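Structure tokens please, single chain.
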Amino acid sequence: MIRLIMLTDFTETFSHRLLRGILGYARQSREQWVVCRMPLSFQEQRGIDGVLQWGREWRADAILGKFSTSGDVWRYAKEGLVVVAQDHYRLVEGIPNLTSDYRATGRLVAEYFLERGFKNFAFCGYADTVWSQERCEGFKQRLEEKEGCGFSRMAEELADQPWQTNDMRLIHWLRTLPEHTAVMCCDDRQASSVLMACDEAGIKVPQDMAVLAVGNGDPDYRDACLVPLTAVQVPIEEMARQCLLLVEKLLRREEAGDVRVPAPVEERQSL
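Here you go.
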């Protein structure tokens, strides 16, 4: 039997879908899995010592978590647990990360736009997350391989700031973009903000501007969009399956690296 602690924020769509994928794989696996759903508040209230004590009593084998520092990770690793870091603001060095190929996703979106004849491009993201930064890098790198492409970037907001729909900086930036610009948004939230800002600025989507997001399928942001949003849907359930396969390998003392799963584009009316 493999006992896995899942230490995360279960109110997030990503974590909720990840749990669903983990439980689905666990039911089909030849191994017998037991998953402990441990909210981040448990560690906040009791500290790492409290989580470790609970893990000892439960005889945990592995922990998948949203870790704030590498020091947290090594406390768990020294306890003998297999440790995997859930996709967060930064990748954790020295252990496997459950993530996706951010730069490849950026290149995929750029290629998607180029095939549809766009000449002007923009990226809207965050200033403080690796997944926004690397998606932008992959997007821009592919565009730089094609001559005659215009590019603009808006990434001043922090990911943990309150969601705003009346950001005048965003509206001003959108108004500076050439007509028929193709905008890549780093996630559902930014895409929803862009679509609302376009409405306030009098920019019609998709007639005047195309918008595409990298999304987790969050219904709160999706339902807030004024038009159905074209998106790269992160295959979270497949990431969950690959994560448990990774844990199984690590428990067998086999070498393993990050889990990076590619994602397809689902086209809707915003493009």
